[in-house]
Amino acid sequence: MKAEYSEKEKNPLESIEEWEEDLLIRYPEPKDTQAKSKEDYRNYHDSERVDTVKEFYRLNHKYQTYDFVVDKEKEFLKFEKKEMPFWDAITYLNTLVDDSDPDTSLDQLQHLLQTSEAIRADGHPDWFVLTGFIHDMGKVLCLFGEPQWAVVGDTFPVGCQHANSIVYPEFFNDNPDSRDERFNSKYGIYEPNCGMDNVKMSWGHDEYLYQMMKDYLPEPALYMIRYHSFYPQHRENSYDHLLNEHDKEMFKWVDKFNPYDLYSKVPVPPDAKALRPYYEDLVAKYLPSTLKF
Ligand SMILES: [Fe+2]
Ligand SMILES: [Fe+2]
Question: Which of the chain's ends, N or C, has fewer CB atoms near its CB within 10 Å?
Fold first, then answer.
């Protein structure tokens, strides 16, 4: 049975960038220098006009249940929706334009290029640069009519207790899983340190792109893609009890990636046209020419 949501419930944000802009308010500095104050963030949210973001989290926390994830995986991981050459997919993604704030907002391609160019400037391996360049391609989910809260937003494990460090934890009161005995204990359906590969995450652009790319990129790249929105772990360390030793090693890469995603905005945008040949070669080195969505 396909759930129906009203337009307001599907798209509480002016645009999906609002979530990332809000992340910068919550995490204004990189992890190693963060002197964060949750109170400041709460005060900001409770006093200023950011109702759209709050509403976004309310819907995300209410509807992202274990069963919801199972359904979305069934629907999207067959990759039968669309077949596109890589560059068409980039163009397609770019039709997701934020028109709420034309002065400061960048199109999706610019965010990807700024992330990847910052990685390249630091001399990292080419697969890391490619990871930066593609990491948000899963947002094409929006163009298939998916609700914003099922595409972006911090991700978290489903099937066990929701960590208190997740932004607006009180909204999980509306999530039926928090009253379900199978799911509402610390470990829920999981074993201690069972490894993240055995843990189902809330559904969004991370898992979707990971599943699309898993045969083509080195493991650290796959961790970066799969967990880049998993702030409750990579910033808050709230799920150490589910990670195994290998995950802990690999999450160092997720940590390495995060500043490029959050803090790579530059005043002069990269020249997409001039950079295209470099990225064409890079994409051709690792990925098939046509991708299935
Ligand atoms: Fe992302
Ligand atoms: Fe991003």
Answer: N
* 193's tokens: 């340190």
CA of 112 relative to ligand 2 center, distance in Å: 7
pLDDT in tens, 174-221: 999 999 999 999 999 999 999 999 999 999 999 999 999 999 999 999
- For residue 257, the ligand closest to its alpha carbon is 2
- The DSSP string of 138-166 is GGGGGGGT--GGGTSS---BSSSPPPTTS
What lies within 8 Å, CB to CB, of 183 at 6+ separation is 66, 158, 159, 160, 161, 177, 189
Residue 51 CA, ligand 2 centroid: distance in Å:
22
- Residue 139 Cα to ligand 2 midpoint, Å, equals 10
Taking only the tens place, the pLDDT of each residue in 55-96 is: 999 999 999 999 999 999 999 999 999 999 999 999 888 887
Task: Specify the DSSP class assigned to residue 202.
Answer: P
Ligand 2 centroid, distance to 59 Cα (angstroms)? 21
What does pTM read for this prediction? 0.92
